[in-house]
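Forum: Protein Structure Q&A
Topic: Joint prediction for protein chains with partners

I've read a bunch of threads here and the consensus seems to be that you should model interacting components together rather than docking separate models afterwards. I'd like to see that in practice. Below is the full input, 711 residues plus whatever partners are listed. Could one of the regulars post the assembled result?
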Amino acid sequence: MSILINAETTFIVQGITGREAMNLTRECLDYGKGAKVVGGVTPGKLGEEAHGVPVFDTVAQAVEAHGAPIDGSVLTVPPAFTKDAVFEAIDNGIKLLVIVTERIPRGDVAQMVEYATEHGAQIIGPNCLGIIVPDVIKMGGIGGPAKDAAKSYTPGPIGVISRSGGMTTEMSSALSAAGLGQSTAVSIGGDAIIGTSYAELMPLFEADEQTKGIVIYSEPGGTMDAELAKWVTENDSRLPIVAFMAGFFMDDMPGMSFGHAGAIVGGKEDTAAEKIARLAEAGITVAEDITDIPDLMKAKLAERGIAV
Amino acid sequence: MRFYEYEARAIVDKAGIPVTKYGFATTPEEARKIAEDIGGPTVIKSQVLSGGRMKAGGVKFADTPDEAAAHAADILKLEINGQMPRGVLVDPKADVDQEFYAGVVWDLTKKLPVIIFSPVGGIDIEQVAEEQPDKVGRRHFSTIHPFNPFIAKEVVASTGVTGKDLQRITPIVARLAELFIEKDMTLAEINPLARMKDGTFVALDAHMDMENEARGRHKALLAELGVGGEETRAAREATPLEIAAEENDAQDHRGIAGNLTEFDGNIGLIIGAGGGSLTLFDAVLAHGGKPANYCEIGGNPTAEKTAGLTKLVLQKPGVEKIAVMMSIVSNTRADIIAEGVINGCLELGMDPAEKIALFRIPGACEEDAFKLLEEHGVEYADRTVSLTEAAKRAVEKIQGAAA
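Posted by a regular:
Agreed with the consensus. Here's the joint model:
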């Protein structure tokens, strides 16, 4: 099994005629069992094709042409137009939105998230690479071209959640090399406000039988680690978690943003040091070195008597 | 982007929130003139982005215009936490009866804006929250449903404020909340919000932070305030090299090859992407490396931009070699980055094999990248070499060579 998407998931790509969108469409069609990319939307490009995928002016046209509800959308439209595109997708019944676009003001993101919540839709991102179920489907640029994605991602028991797109692949690659495949890997985005946090993905992984453990990549800034620690403590999670924290050097440089928009040390609670203390209190193992992650996970699984 | 106090007050004033009759001065003479117009005792406040002005001697009281000018002359020369003041704010010494606090911030967990209000103002709100939690009211509000003033009334009333105070504070807090959303602020704070002896309220100090990503849609406001497009308002001013890297990145909108921050070391770093850069920088430090710079490559930049960044880093005094390393790339193409860094070396008349200590960018189009690197004799590593190992190898090679 997997979370969020599976082989049957249908999705569109909003902004499909852009350079990066064309690439990711090709990659999704090629990867695993081949994603069901049922349409693309770029205003004014009705009737064109992108790698055989029909292009429409509106999401409504795409839904009508498909003749059934569409599950998801990957959004790669410029920041000034993303909010409008998200509302359009939600109003046309789409329930899973993967927002790739970077540099969207958080006021817009908050509106998208609130609108999605009111309509029972879920946003992954912004500023993310998407979701991958190894050997089955990928939704977004995650892992890159199909043959490259296949080198890093293998099916298995570990759920991966990461604020960095590249680090999602990096950690999955290390896990795969150590014989620990992934159930689903989710690049959740590096912005200050994102649609779905670690703690919000945990119930999905918790309910997924294939998933036996969770690996997380985190950075300074934001409240997601504290939220995760709280969730784990309150819900007596069955899943062992290993976390990796990058950006320790930022602790001495308050007010400067590195890496992602959300990675900035404002107060003490934003620092890497404070965050790992919070995670450790909740029983989450924090890897000091990224290369230690697979062994730490194996040890935690063994400790709990979980066979993988 | 943080605003100076004099700018924040202007923003508050434009939103219809009462302020004192203050003035901004960049010379002692201007300060004297403002004090004369005010016609009574004044407060002279240093305009720096740093906190702790009072302690540093950046806030002084004056009884006469001459005294105001003298204080202004002192404060204008006074560096506070490494910053020279932009000017001084000359404010009438207020006849304050009680100080309140009103602020709006993002609750990143709930993903909603939250109003924070307290009848205990003038000091740090976090201190109040710790010592007198019942004196701090909080209320979230929607970003998609219309804002209604009752929301402000509820949060003020929740702290025990009633009567005329409640009636007068409610519209001020409501305007602050609307201003927060309209102007894309990440922090909008009036502290203190003062009740004067006559019962009216004024914003005595304000702190505003606008989100950088939203600056483009507030050009008119920024122009009115005289904030230049080049002003980053970061924790420290950008260095010439950092500005040059910014210009190099801006030459083409595709991808990023920039976000350069200078450090004192000798290891030139061409690193990416967002998370990879953070991880690699930590790893270089952990292995005793002394980076000359931080930077980020991501989103598939052109070879030209990458070459430009490479040249800037290689030309930084003290840099003998560079390490080119990224977390496994998805949309960024390894071959284009390889082409960029090799060209950067060649354009400076340098040998890539000698200048590039290590190239570790696995992922999209890696075969083409590795082929190109082999042609130029550059040492490279694939995904079987972890980020940590790559950083270690780069440190040993470069600092070993420098020693």
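The radius of gyration of chain A is 19 Å.
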